[in-house]
């Protein structure tokens, strides 16, 4: 006696089984004759979607022996294209659901060193002769690059042929 139809086009009244048993007992005590289950013209069909719970209004009364409908599957949003997901969300908003866009990610501060990303001349990948030639060509025109190359050499391979020569000139200390 769950999901009692109230009339055409109306919602069904959903009652817990215990209450339905009390109502059935009361009706029997009031003189309603018990009915043979073989004479029943309706049978209870549990809900086909949502939770399988006695208070789920998707349950129904159907003619005996009616086949169960195919279960409904909820579409996985990850299988949709970005455009289809946006359209689906817009439809939910139109239906009155409050669907908020996720907040943008919090900006994170990080240090960017334009000189080293990527380095113009990585001294560890060149010979002593090539590094010395590069530093001679720079001369005094780019002291930042020259200091960077000497710093990278000092903290990298640390070759004396480069460091002693350019430290004597007073560069790179």
Walkthrough of the structure:
With 173 residues, the chain is mainly alpha-helical. Helix content is 34%, strand content 6%. The protein has five helices and four strands, in the order ββαββαααα. It has helices at 17-29, 82-94, 128-138, 143-154, 160-168, and strands spanning 4-5, 12-13, 43-45, 60-62. The chain has a two-stranded antiparallel ribbon. Strands 3-4 form a two-stranded antiparallel ribbon. The N and C termini lie far apart (93 Å).
Task: List the keywords.
single chain; 173 residues; mainly alpha; two-stranded antiparallel sheet; two-stranded antiparallel ribbon; 5 helices; 6% strand; rod-shaped
Concise structural overview:
This protein is mainly α and 173 residues long. Helix content is 34%, strand content 6%.
Helical residues, percent:
25-40%
Strand order, sheet with most strands:
1-2
Give the uncertain stretches in residue-range form. Answer: none
The quaternary organization reads as single chain
Residue share in β-strands: 5-15%
Number of separate strands: 4
Q: How are helices and strands ordered from N to C?
A: EEHEEHHHH
Classify the secondary structure makeup into a structural class: mainly alpha
Q: How does the overall form come out from the CA principal axes?
A: rod-shaped
Count of DSSP-assigned helices: 5
The N- to C-terminal Cα distance equals 93 Å
pLDDT averaged over residues = 80
> What does the radius of gyration come to?
40 Å
Which sheet architecture does the biggest sheet show? 2 strands, antiparallel
């Amino acid at each position: 006696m769950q999901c009692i139809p109230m009339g055409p086009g109306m919602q069904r009244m959903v009652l817990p089984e215990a209450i339905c048993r009390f109502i059935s007992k009361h009706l029997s005590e009031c003189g309603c004759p018990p009915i043979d289950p073989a004479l029943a013209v309706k049978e209870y069909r549990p809900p086909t979607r949502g939770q399988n719970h006695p208070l789920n209004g998707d349950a129904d009364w159907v003619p005996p022996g009616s086949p169960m409908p195919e279960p409904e599957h909820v579409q996985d949003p990850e299988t949709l294209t970005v455009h289809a997901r946006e359209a689906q969300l817009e439809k939910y908003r139109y239906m009155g659901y409050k669907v908020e866009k996720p907040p943008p990610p919090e900006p994170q501060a990080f240090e960017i060193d334009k000189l080293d990303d990527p380095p113009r001349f990585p001294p560890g990948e060149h010979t002593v002769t090539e590094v010395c030639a590069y530093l001679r060509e720079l001369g005094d025109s780019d002291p930042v690059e020259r200091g960077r190359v000497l710093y990278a050499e000092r903290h990298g391979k640390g070759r004396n042929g480069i460091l002693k020569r350019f430290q004597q000139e007073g560069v790179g200390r």
